[in-house]
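BACKBONE GEOMETRY TOKENS
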Amino acid sequence: MSKNRDDSPLPRLQRPRYGVDAPAFPATLGAVGAACCLAAGRWRPGRSAMVAAGTVLLASTGIYLHTTLHGKLRIWRRELDQAGLKGDERLLDLGCGRGAMLIEAARRLPTGHAVGVDLWSGKDQSGNRPEVTLANAAAAGVADRVEVHTADMTALPFADGSFDVVTSALAIHNIPSPDGRYRALDEAMRVLRPGGQLIVADFWPMARKYAAHIGQGTLRGLGPGYWYGGPWLGVTLLHAVKGR
């Protein structure tokens, strides 16, 4: 059986399970939507407004769950297919969580290596633990090319130019201060080799600030498949290549 860094047995999974992003948010959204619909059935005044609000909230919950369980995975498969990976790269995923991005990348690196770092906050993703990430890698058949570290993305424990690709999916915005988010970007660029790719997905206002901070890169919306409830929480991709 595969082991984690503490040499404890990994959970056995038949297929990777990536959990739900920020699980308290859709739970609250759905509960409020259901409450609005129930209230509309009891009180005539304002019934139409309550039905409309409940319908919007429940629809947003459904869109959110589709994104976190299916949509984002399809989009990352597409984006990784378009990244032009040769298969022998070293890739670093910042805020890897349960490994959705990390493992999809590892599938495309038969002679390469995928490294994930996280602080394993349960608020950001349900069941977020390093042993679950490693179990997901084993279930996907890529455990031999995946490793995870408990590390702060604002102070990465890697040498300059250690990686060919650095990715991050909806993680950098969780750093509470702008200075911290910019330090994470600086660290990502530091550990990239010259000519390496930075591929970051985040909510569009954040992605625009990231591009302005590093002074380069292209921005592209990832569409409805990456909406967390609606277009007001749509995700944008920043792609940059480090100068040689």
Notes: Strands lie at 90-94, 113-118, 146-150, 163-169, 192-203, 218-221, 235-241.
